[in-house]
Write a structure and sequence with these properties.
Blueprint: H1 3-16, H2 19-44, E1 50-56, E2 70-74, H3 82-91, E3 96-100, H4 108-114, E4 116-119, H5 125-146, H6 151-156, E5 166-168, E6 173-175, H7 178-212, H8 215-219, H9 225-274, H10 280-295, H11 298-326, H12 330-356, H13 361-368, H14 373-380, H15 387-415, H16 425-433
Helix pairs in contact: 1-9, 2-9, 4-5, 7-9, 7-11, 7-12, 7-14, 9-11, 9-15, 11-12, 11-14, 11-15, 12-14, 13-14, 15-16
């Protein structure tokens, strides 16, 4: 077995046998499954029933009763003024007091700017939005009546429009469902971002730990620094890949079991309640999503994800290894980490623009620049990327990894045996120019 293989095996087995690896591997899927289930479980919880006391002096709401969750109870504007309404509200158990004052004449625009909502505590934004929508509808109806237009006629002529988007390619037409591609691209890019930060950071911490404990002095006597660095990077990368695959499998299993046990009854009840309201539009939307998923080139997606997943990690882990070799503790590493982590953060920030325009100049340049391409290119790929752009991004990432590894090895070779000295950028530059 070669020296590099022995180093990779040592790095892999050392971390896999740790209790922390087992704990994180088992807790990770539970946490991920919880994050997926919790929103659905919370959504099924019953809402609080609230009653709003209303003092509607001009009669804008026409004694609208509200809804079961947000009931409206009216005070008589002929016998009760605002101060009296406040007193009654404080003595009651009502959630809030809605006050609509009267103006000079019946001017809906006046009412729209003078409405107040009083609460014993801060008002829920949901309640505020519901009341705003209700008032907006009623005020608009009053304005239509003043203009001599029947609101019922307007309501009857409202029409929902659904547009089916279709891609016209040289081969065949295919249904395009952009939200599916947006979600697939963003999730893939975020996973790569997380993997790079988490496991490349482990490479740096591992180098600092061995350097601090002086273990590296023993290892370096029989192993070349470049081999040690590549072995550590590869070994920890394999640990991360195995852990990630376990997380994906276990998270899926836990999610299916938990959703079956905890959410099945609630979802079945909701399905029965909505069964009568299902229409052809809903069925068409479901078929549209299925067709969009089937139209995605999954071999390209999975192959690209695996390459950029590992390529991004290898590139950044070499940089993190160089930082770890140049410092004695993690505190000192912060000054060197900022320039390295900025491209990753920028890549996440530009993904929103890339999703909106995956073929734009911004998306193109960020998807071929090696420090941002692992994230941005994965966001673009579900939308379809020309093969020459994908190939260019792959080649540049490989060349960048080769060049960065060579430079990082020079820093690693000198820094791994340096102790007790605060390293500066000027010092690092000298190390890079050093010829052995």
């Amino acid at each position: 077995m070669s020296t590099l293989s022995l180093i990779i095996k040592r790095e892999f087995l050392t971390r896999v046998k740790k209790k922390s690896f087992l704990v994180i591997t088992l807790l990770g899927p539970i946490l991920l499954a919880t994050l997926m289930i919790a929103p659905a479980l919370i959504a099924t919880l019953p809402d609080d029933n609230r009653t709003i006391m209303v003092l509607d002096q001009p009669g804008i709401l026409n004694y609208d009763k509200g809804s079961e969750k947000l009931a409206l109870k009216y005070a008589d504007p002929k016998t009760i003024d605002l101060e009296k309404a406040k007193e009654l509200f404080q003595e009651s158990e009502h959630y809030a007091l809605l006050y609509i004052p009267s103006g000079s004449g019946f001017d809906p625009d006046f009412f729209a700017t003078k409405i107040s909502l009083f609460g014993k505590k801060d008002i829920s934004i949901t309640v505020e939005n519901q009341l705003r929508d209700l008032l907006k509808t009623n005020i608009e109806n009053e304005k239509l009546k003043i203009a001599g237009v029947d609101p019922e006629v307007i309501a009857q002529n409202k029409t929902k429009v659904s547009i089916k988007t279709i891609n016209l390619s040289d081969k065949e037409e295919s249904v395009s469902f952009t939200p599916v591609k947006m979600a697939l691209g963003y999730i893939s890019g975020f996973f790569i971002y997380f993997f790079i930060f988490f496991y490349a950071g482990q490479v740096m911490r591992g180098v600092i730990e061995e350097k601090t404990n002086r273990i590296v002095e023993v290892i370096i006597s029989s192993v070349k620094p470049r081999q040690l660095m590549l072995g550590k990077i590869t070994g920890i990368g394999l640990v991360g890949l195995v852990q990630f695959l376990i997380w994906v499998v276990l998270s899926g299993v836990i999610y299916l079991l938990a959703s079956t046990v905890f959410l099945k009854e609630k979802f079945d009840t909701a399905a029965l309640a909505q069964q009568d309201s299902l229409d052809a539009v809903g069925m068409d939307k479901g078929m549209e999503i299925m067709n969009a998923l089937l139209a995605i080139d999954w071999p390209i997606i999975l192959g690209s994800f695996l390459f950029f997943f590992l390529g991004g990690y290898l590139l950044y882990s070499a940089l993190f290894a160089a930082i770890g070799s140049a410092v004695d503790n993690e505190t000192d590493s912060q000054q060197f980490m900022l320039p390295i982590t900025i491209p990753l953060i920028v890549a996440i920030l530009v993904t929103l623009r890339v999703i909106e325009n995956p073929d734009g100049a911004l998306a193109f340049w960020f998807s071929i620049f090696p420090l941002t391409s692992p994230i941005v290119m994965m966001v673009r790929i579900p939308f379809g990327v020309p093969l020459w752009e994908l190939g260019l991004s792959v080649i540049l990432l490989l060349l960048a990894f080769y060049g960065v590894t060579a430079l990082a090895a020079k820093i690693y070779r000198v820094g791994i045996l340096m102790y007790g000295k605060k390293v500066t950028y000027k010092e690092l530059y000298k190390w890079l120019r050093f010829k052995s």
